[in-house]
Amino acid sequence: MLRLDLSRWGAREWTMTALAFVVFCFGVLAAGRGLASGAAGEVLRLRFGGDAERTRVVVDLDHSTRGQVVSDGTDGHVVVALTGVAPHGRMDGDGLGLVRGYQVSSAGGASRLELTLATGAEIERRFLLPPGDGVDHFRYVIDLRSTGRVPVARRPAAPSPRAPARAERPLIVIDAGHGGHDPGAHGSRSNESAVTLAAALMLKSELERTGRYRVRLTRDNDTYVGLYRRVAIARTADADLFISLHADAGSDPATRGASIYTLSEQGAGRAVREFTRSDNWHRDLRLPGRDPSVDRILLDMTQRTTQNRSAQLARTLLGGLEAADHPLLRRSHRDAGLAVLLAPDVPAVLLEMGFITNPEDEHILNDDRARRRLMQAVAGGIDQYFRAPAANMQMASTTGASGQP
User: Which single residue of 23, 31, 239, 305 could bond 173 by disulfide (Cβ 3.0 to 4.6 Å)?
Assistant: First the structure.
């Protein structure tokens, strides 16, 4: 064991040694954070200069980067993906001139820079400045100029953030679990595949009755549809929501209540592996395809948005079930890497409507009136999902800095 004879050390030497040790620890910690994020560098800060005619945005970085425009400002937001750098935690604040506010978030070892515009603007030019002329770090510069046009998202006739961008009514894909050679779980007098099909048909009727939705079923009879095929049906149809209906089972007949599953983080990783397996994955996901690293960033952004929306859908559905006095499990919102939840671009949930092994729940699943009340509660939750503001997609504003490169 190494022993230090402090009597041989002066106060100044001991202080300097301790300070060096602290600096070393901070360096190790910072390096560890960089490795954990998967990024080679870090976003240091944002600065703004200019006025309401022309505004310069300067992103200070400790590493080189490449930028890819995700949104050009026509919808009121400029979004740029920056490869190889990640923010040290969440970064947001107020802007200047043409920029009302900004947010920088981590996106799979890279950064997603979002600028909320104060008025109509477009990107005039973008460039990277290397260290030099007395500056010891990289600077990614975005020059904006006023267009004099009102952004699409700010027009009164524009859809709400939760509504689909296209003119059609939202498309809901309903998946009746199991079917055909796969009957699913067994109750005392029914099979899961039968009760999920009956519920899917009733939910379709309830949604179409409102006149607000288009509805498609993955199956409308007692046939089996492969799990990945169910996901493909939703993605090919460009669905706005995917809901898979199931009935739970347990060894204790007293266990009852509904629960909802959304995609877990492990499942999200599985989804990326599944969808990047082919050579044409970027085309399948409607990504630019010019740079694989940028496409991976865009895929990560898409998937993160989808997960947020899936969680919002789960919350509104559970709220609707609770308001209808439908029994819920104690931990009613769960996550898992289930195959039917893997679509990276379609918000999806799996609803366990109750336990088919519980007498009370099985009665609800088989009785027409009780099942209708349940599906009306689900339809009400879907209504609430489309009416709710996309609070989790909006930017928070604090303070920012201004200046020149």
Answer: 239
Kindly report, residue by residue over 30-89, the tens digit of the pLDDT.
444 444 445 578 899 999 988 888 999 999 999 899 888 888 888 888 999 888 888 877
How large is the greatest C-alpha to C-alpha distance in the chain, in angstroms?
A: 88
153, two tokens: 């998202």
Asked whether residue 126 falls in the same domain as residue 217, the answer is: no
Provide the residue type at 187 as one letter.
G
User: Could you tell me which residues are beta bridge partners of residue 93?
Assistant: 102
Q: Could you tell me which residues are beta bridge partners of residue 69?
A: 80
Do both 50 and 89 map to the same domain?
yes
Place of tokens 């009613």: 332
For residue 54, count CB atoms less than 10 angstroms from its CB and return exposed for 0-12, middle for 13-18, buried for 19 or more. middle
Q: pLDDT tens digits for 287-339?
A: 555 556 665 666 667 777 888 899 999 999 999 999 999 999 999 999 988 88
For the question of whether the overall pTM of this predicted structure is more than 0.85, the answer is no
Tokens of 170: 């939202």
What is the model's pLDDT at position 84?
Answer: 86
**How many Cα neighbours within 13 Å face the side chain of 29?**
7
Q: Are 325 and 340 in contact (CB under 8 A)?
A: no
**Assigned token pair, 274:** 């599944």
Distance CA 116, CA 57 (A): 12
List CB contacts of 11: < 8 A, sequence separation 6 or more: none
The CATH number given to whatever domain includes residue 122 is: 2.60.40.3500
